[in-house]
Amino acid sequence: MTHLQPAPGEPDVDAAPTLAALRAQILARAAVEPAPTRGQLAARQRIVVGLALAVSLLVFLAWGGLRPDPRPARLVIETTVGSAILAVGIAIVALGRGRSMLGRPRPWLALAVMSTPLALFAWRVLTTARYAGMSEEWSTRPGMRCLLLSGMLAITPLVSLLWLRRGSDTVHPRLTAAAFGAAAGAAAWVVVDLWCPVGYVPHLLFGHVAPVVLLTVLSAVLGSRVLRLRRP
Questions:
Q1: Residue 8 domain flag
Q2: Distance between CA 210 and CA 204 in Å, rounded?
């Protein structure tokens, strides 16, 4: 028996139950939980984000702050500015909703998640390779301290972000949360770049790339529960 295609402008009967159920779920959630005003949301976000950034700044200062030597100042500027541009682009994709109230499309989020560690690693390696002696091995710096610092810098902003956006994703909460983790890891990468002078590739893979991957995976696991829109 031939399936009849809906006429132009007529809703698809196969998609209608899914859309109707999703709409009913959102309306029911709104009915039992009074929505805060836009001003209240903005104030809450400013407070949470400000506290998260303050904690990360204190961690960075406690670990010694900026340590450019023995790198030339130009190398520090190039690696930091380049990674910062990449981190901002990743944050725009991960945190923004675009034109849809349901958030970014899956391909955008998947691209952000997969490209983040690769792009940051490639930029650091290629930029450092242009300076003699800056890619050599440091036997006393395998990367453990950079891995720990990255996690400490990123965990507070990541948890804060997940809390602010809790129960808000109706489509792909796990992938959205993974993108949040990638964005937090990219932001931590920029700060760690200011602290770590080592450009040795194995060190970068263990101390810089691995934290971004671990944060992305951890956030995806948490996001499947935290960001998912719950039934009232």
A1: no
A2: 8
